[in-house]
Design a protein that fits this description.
Layout lengths: L8 H21 L6 H14 L3 E5 L2 H11 L6 E6 L4 H9 L3 E5 L10 H13 L3 E5 L11 H11 L2 E5 L7 E2 L2 E2 L6 E5 L13 E5 L2 H10 L4 E3 L2 E2 L10 H10 L3 H21 L20 E2 L5 E4 L3 H10 L29 H9 E4 L7 H15 L1
Parallel strand pairs: 2-3, 2-4, 4-5, 5-8
Antiparallel strand pairs: 1-9, 6-7, 6-12, 8-9, 10-11, 13-14
The structure holds pyridoxal-5'-phosphate.
The site of pyridoxal-5'-phosphate has 15 residues, from helix 3 and helix 4.
Amino acid sequence: MRVPLLDLSEQYRALTPAIQAQVAEVLETQQFILGPKVKEFENAIASYCRVNHAIGVSSGTDALLAIFMALGFGPGDTVIVPSFTFFATGGCVARVGAKPAFADIDPASFNITARTVEECLHRCRQKGERIRAIVPVHLFGLCCDMDPLMELAQREQITVIEDAAQAIGAEYGGRRAGSIGAAAAFSFYPSKNLGAAGDAGLIGTNNDELAERIRLCRQHGMHERYFHDFIGGNFRLDELQAAILSVKLPHLDEWSAARRRVADVYRDEFTARGLTNRVTLPAEPYRDSGLTNHHIYHQYVIRTERRDALREHLTRHEIGTAIYYPMGLHQQKCFSYLGYRDGDLPETECAARETLALPIYPELTREQQRYVVDEVAEFFQ
Ligand SMILES: Cc1ncc(COP(=O)(O)O)c(C=O)c1O
């Protein structure tokens, strides 16, 4: 048996006629830039994410960049981000000339917490830095514990920008990912739960003024053709991508529910096989606090000290896996100028050594899942 890490072909087969009709319509009208399909998609997704404004952009990276530019972050500003995240979270801070400060993670959720952010804040303050924002990343589809983070940010008068690139539709205490902070970035990279046919992204916000500024920022800060109020970029969402995303959006909840069922089967199978003392399964935090915690399982990430050997074993048996992420951002060569050392963020570094993403997607069969668990069991025998 072969089990790929992700297989999108079945999803496409089910939606082929609808997608092709939408694409044909755009081609017929020849309206490729900020036309009716973008507007329609923005309206639908604003209501899905429960935000007042949704602004379609060219990628999740550009969503972060446009937010930071619209808020005027720049030299002299420090922005707190997790070290255990995709590069864009920290990269975009540096691109606007601000300084990323890396917070460690909670080892169970893989997310930053009020405690790790407070430690980071303290270090920054000791160096006399001006902290402008915190960017919690809802990693792998699980929301950060946002209430304590929002309280901390309010107390310190710091803006919170959610990086919800991996978490569209995830919930925290009944609120949707991306509707809690001042603004949020989403990604529709093809492998995301809601994936485009190329690069695409979105910004969500409830702030009218910020939404207006971000809309301008998306088109070079231009309020009227060739009149530029400030410097932005070309961050527009393609009409073709919007048309395709509009076909997929109505299926998103059903796909995320199917991913949760896959996660439940993994949990049952790993538990039944007595493997939970060998691998740590994804956490389901906040349960005891009574908060609803609605994980969308963008990735199913386990941890084990024998990660690399397990990965080799699974690869030999044609099971796809991935390592998100092999090192913390604070260890990346391009951030060496910030002066971090190995050992500075121990939980991030440990997660980078121990985590392994297993196959997860809505159409993954029980047989395929059983095969994955069989092979993990075989490895640990
Ligand atoms: C946490 C996080 N932030 C930002 C991004 C950037 O999104 P994009 O790839 O659409 O530019 C990603 C994409 O993988 C991500 O996972």
